[in-house]
Amino acid sequence: MSQGQNGAELRLVTPGSAIGPVSGRRVGTGALIQGDEIIATRVGHVRERHGTVSVDPVASCYMPRSGDLVIGTVIEARSNLWFLDINGPFQALLPMSLAPWKVEFGGTRDHADINDSLLMRVQEVDEVQNVVATMKGIGLRRLAEGAVLNVDVQHIDTLRAEGAALLKRLRDLSECRLVLADNGRLWADGDAAGIDWLRALLRAVAAAGRSDRFEAILDAHAANAPNQGDA
Amino acid sequence: MMGGYGDVKLLNDDGTRLDGRTVDEMRPVEIKAGILPAAQGSAWVKHGLNVAVVAVYGPMEAHPRKIQRQDRAVLDVRYNMAPFSTSDRIRPGFNRRSREISKVTAEALESVVLLERYPRSKIRVEIEILAAEAGTRCVGITAASVALADAGIPMRDMVVGIASGKIQDTVVLDLDKAEDNYGQADLPMGICPNTGELVFLQMDGDLSIEEYNLATEYNYKAAAEIHEIMVAALKDRYDGGEA
What residues make up the domain containing A124? Predict the structure, then answer.
């Protein structure tokens, strides 16, 4: 067992493990009802809140939802649209009508070429997971500078918790501008030393696998951070 | 006697096997999860002298598009034995045996993976046998289950691969190489330890109903033991080994 943020014991379960009897409880993500029992479908920590039992997975992939802020990498440019890898099971398409530029038919690569990173929002996800993205919105743009780093999707809530306290610490310690996208990508713009430090930190967090260790790993890496001020 | 070599001695006079195991004793099993940093999920399994490494990638967009299923993901399993895995060098690449094992492994895992969560996508499972003794398909299934769980792929249960067989008219658990080569029958199974479901079954040789029941009983008992090791490996990776 490990300890949650409020000191409560977190129970780690594996797929197929019985969490407990249904007895009027609802089932959230990472669990399902089999007979009279709630069973886990993923490796993760059991959480029960307001009568809903769910499993916070220790590893998961990004599932796009409408409205998500995502960083996509262009993998294909057609005459009137782009296909982008959004770090999930499905590619997103960005039609030229939803791009922020005045694009002529056949001229998509003049604005965003293969391997370019774009900051976008998910406009629509249909029932067979066709994903349409848009770049019409404040701050949505092509990321011409900086680096795109990977963050495990299950750590995003941890980074954003308590008014994004951890993300602010990362920003202060690395002296980089940061944009954390919902699809497990972090855009960092600053000195190479700051970006390298961030990359090493995120690699260590990924190896540990657990969100509740993020802060401890950050504390351990803080001594090597570019900014040694009062951050 | 079908499928056997009756004159090869595989049991000692005291009823134990040539490697000293009792008839219902399994070879030692070790499992580690999350050993490959590049993969979404991975596992290393040592079962006796068998060693398997499995990597799971995805879910990812399924290509070519003709393999996509509109209502569920495709499980793309590739089982491969390394050229150095046996004393006789194995020619690299797919062959009939590896295709068959890839197919049956995929079908066993499809029974538990919630594929409907990822329509149009593909989950790639790469099983590499680094050292082979006997029962590599079972080791591959066990390792693939741990790797899928490590990758965060939702599953109803995990699958444990284990085999029993018959040597010198005696049913034994977990055949080693000599027993597999010179025995009379082999009964590999894929068992869901929590639900008790049987998701994979093959039989090579002949078993009576009583022998089949005994072999099944041995397999279920061993599956429960292996499942504990699988769970411990995942807990070791994510919870520092605490139960």
Answer: 69-134
Distance from CA of A44 to the nearest CA of B (A): 8
Q: Give yes or no for a contact between A89 and B121, defined as CB atoms under 8 angstroms apart.
A: yes
Work out the minimum CA distance from B68 to partner chain A, whole angstroms. Answer: 11
Contact between chains at A129 and B121 (C-beta distance less than 8 A) = yes
Instruction: Let me know whether A153 and A216 are in one domain.
Output: yes
Q: In this predicted model, what pLDDT tens digit does every residue of B108-124 receive, in sequence order?
A: 999 999 999 998 899 99
Our count of domains for chain A comes to 3
Tell whether A41 lies on the interface with B, counting CB pairs under 8 A.
Answer: yes
CATH number of the domain bearing residue A25: 2.40.50.100
The structure tokens listed for B42 are 């991975």
Considering the domain boundaries, does residue A105 fall inside one? Answer: yes
Q: Do B40 and A12 touch (CB under 8 A)?
A: no
B92-108, pLDDT tens digit by residue?
988 999 999 999 999 99
Q: Which of A134, A164, A184 is the last residue in one of the domains?
A: A134
A42 touches chain B (CB under 8 A): yes
Q: Within a domain: residue A142?
A: no
Q: Does A209 touch chain B (CB under 8 A)?
A: yes
pLDDT digits (tens, 9 = 90+) for B165-188: 999 999 999 999 999 999 999 999
What residues of B are in contact with residue A12 (Cβ under 8 Å)? 234-235, 238-239, 242
pTM of the model: 0.87
Q: Which of A134, A167, A185 is the last residue of a domain?
A: A134
Judge whether A141 lies within some domain.
no
ipTM metric: 0.89
* pLDDT tens digits along A62-96: 989 999 999 999 999 999 999 999 998 889 999 99
The CATH number assigned to the domain with range B29-239 reads 3.30.230.70
Residue B224 has pLDDT above 90, yes or no: yes
